[in-house]
Amino acid sequence: MSSMDEDKKLIEKTIKGEKEAFEMIIRKYQQPILNYIGRMVGERELAIDFTQDVFIRTYSSLHLYQPQYKFSTWLFKIASNFMIDYWRKKKIETFSLDQPPKWDSSNPPLQIPENKPSTIKKLEISQLREKIERAMEKIPAPLREVFLWRHINEFSYEEIAEIKNLPVGTIKNRVFQAKEMIRSLLEEKE
Amino acid sequence: MKCLSIEQIYLYIEKELSEAENKKIEEHLTTCPKCQRALEERNLLLQAAESLPLWQPPPDFTQQVMAKIFPTKVPISSWIKAMSAGFTSIILALFIFLLASGQNLSGLLISFNQALWSFIKNFALLFVKIFKLATLLIKVIQQFFGFLINGFTSLTAIISPQVQIIIIAISIIVILTLIYGIKRKLFIGERT
Question: Which CATH number fits domain A102-187: 3.10.620.30, 3.40.50.720, 1.10.10.10, 3.20.20.480?
């Protein structure tokens, strides 16, 4: 049975009243959701609380789930909306779908610059990981979000487009921007 | 073929391109050290990003969420069991106390009764006093309101109806302004 079918079976069972089925859903998705929320908020305790709230919100909206969509993308959509609510409450700049965000106008260069010496190759992998973690905190939250989904949660561009309800091209561009922003931050001297 | 774009490099690493596009890129890479360097660098970046340590949820995470979604209800039978266990423990403790102290049970019961009786007596006296005080207070309030109504009727007899309307309108405006002022003050207080 594929993971998608397995999820749908578990949801059916949960709706019928089998608590154990929802417990299995939590066990399966607790780590991916915590990794997304954790790197969005940066605090462990807060991230754990938010992840719990996302599962509670998911349980109370299970009757709205449409089986033609992947459960994982639906779950991440709930988590993403949760984060948007959090940013709104904290009055942190969120991204409106109607208006282009500020960082959309600052596209990274498309062509490879001429023989610029790079520091990335000189770093140890552990140092590079540390620097990436710090750089991720500095990039705009909407870019960080799609970068995490693509390279930590390993979603396809199509799945991310489904979560955000945006064209695949827009998502590809945002992930590209995120990567190049992180790369240029790695080049900066501390 | 001209040099690759950075986006092309990423899509090539992520295997997002067609076979034909991949072939073209591979051919170009064999002849272009600049693109090769850019590819190695981005490959390293993605490898490091994809191997970042994962955040581990606490071991009791699932139980915590389940407890929030399905709070456990204690059945009535459990309450009865707990109460009877408590009552039995008290009786048992009393019995052990009697045995250990060597006191007479009847003597203990008599002293307990005496203490209970004195408590009831004192409480009854206090209750009577409170009742008397309350009736007195009600009488005073009654008289005060009677005085107020008398004063108001004699005033309305003196003042003409037009003036009465003006006074009522002014009073309403003053009250509304006061309410608005208090609300605004509270709101500003909340914001600061």
Answer: 1.10.10.10
